[in-house]
Write a structure and sequence with these properties.
7 strands, OB fold (Dihydrolipoamide Acetyltransferase, E2P), mainly beta, two-stranded antiparallel ribbon
Amino acid sequence: MRLAKVRGTVVSTVKDDSLMGVKLLFIQLVSESGDLLDDYEVAADAVGAGVGEWVLVSRGSGARQQRGYDQRPVDAAVIAIVDTVSLDNGLLYDKREDSY
């Protein structure tokens, strides 16, 4: 799994039938220091995340193990909305204190 920040949504009216009804998010990966990396990705949203939230992203076959995603061409899925991230040197992220 990777940490990421939701940067926006992706809308596609023409897509594989199995992706109908799947919300797609544009995410940016986060480093262990909390900095945004130059890596972006599109992920299926399994938890109802919103723009600006930090999330956990599962990739590859792990992404397809979410309920309802096993027969879909999904390579990345948002599987959790992050509340806090703590490291040995202190708090890295707290959703309550973040101003999207």
